[in-house]
Amino acid sequence: MLELLPLSLLALVAHAVEHFIAVGGGDGAAEFNPQWLDNVDVDDFVTFNFTTLGHSVVQTSLTLPCVFISDDGAPDLHGFASPLSAAAGTTFSIQVTNISAPIFFACGTDTHCQNGAVGGINAVEFSSSVTDAAKTSVSRGFADVPSNGTALGSGVLSRVVTSPSLASSGPSRLSPGAFVGIAIVALLLLIGAALVLRHWMVVTRVRRAHKRTEWKRRLEKRLSQVHAATDAAKPAGGAEDVPRM
Ligand SMILES: *[C@@H]1O[C@H](CO)[C@@H](O)[C@H](O)[C@H]1NC(C)=O
Ligand SMILES: *[C@@H]1O[C@H](CO)[C@@H](O)[C@H](O)[C@H]1NC(C)=O
Ligand SMILES: *[C@@H]1O[C@H](CO)[C@@H](O)[C@H](O)[C@H]1NC(C)=O
After folding, report:
1. Ligand 2 center to residue 105 CA distance, Å?
2. CATH label, 17-170, candidates 2.60.40.2890, 2.60.40.420, 1.10.10.60, 2.40.50.140
3. Which residue windows are transmembrane per the record (predicted)?
4. Pairing between β-strand 118-121 and β-strand 58-60 as defined by DSSP bridges
5. Full-model pTM
6. Mean pLDDT by 10 residues, the chain (245 residues)
């Protein structure tokens, strides 16, 4: 039971799912595979794997699919962006923090977006309209993207993370379900400990009882030996007790 504990705890705590999107493509536009992710939940991670050099992932919007998103109402809140020409073999991860609206992204390199390098999270129903809008989009929509990507934590409805495993730590991120699960595991542990203690007490009691019987048996044996010796020392017929005449 004890050796099972870390696994069950991990399963309860690590409820977030990591989704992967390969970013590749040769000389032409980048290709996102898969292009549209569905059923992504709050706290889930999306990791982009760059399989070929010279592409990027930049957060965009439904109405302007080839323009870097920035929230004018909150100057510090900007869309996420990977380095503009990410090296092959590197990854870029975001964590989804809010699923009240879809998240859109595109390749910010050259005219890859206009050539169809767009994608989305929980945005499948917008796939054709976004792809159509991208074809006629402005071509300088990514001028504001920092060449080495945006800082950790940036993103609208999401945040850039270093690595999904590091980002998922921290008890404050536990869902109510995880708390219930941990409570159940703790209860099972208590029951297990109680059973072990009870078993130990029963075994101890049996051992003690056994020792006591053994000790009693020896005492009785010794007593009967003493009696036997006393009887043998007496003259036959109990003559000592008979007064002499
Ligand atoms: C993306 O990369 C990660 C880590 O390098 C790997 O675990 C995962 O299988 C890759 N997924 C895809 C779809 O390439
Ligand atoms: C999610 O985003 C919407 C609008 O973007 C906002 O109204 C809502 O408060 C956000 N929810 C959370 C839990 O932050
Ligand atoms: C990001 O790029 C700028 C120049 O474009 C450079 O000055 C800066 O050192 C780079 N930062 C990192 C962390 O690479």
Report:
1. 19
2. 2.60.40.420
3. 178-197
4. unpaired
5. 0.66
6. 49 76 82 96 96 94 92 68 92 96 95 94 96 89 90 93 65 54 74 83 80 77 77 57 52
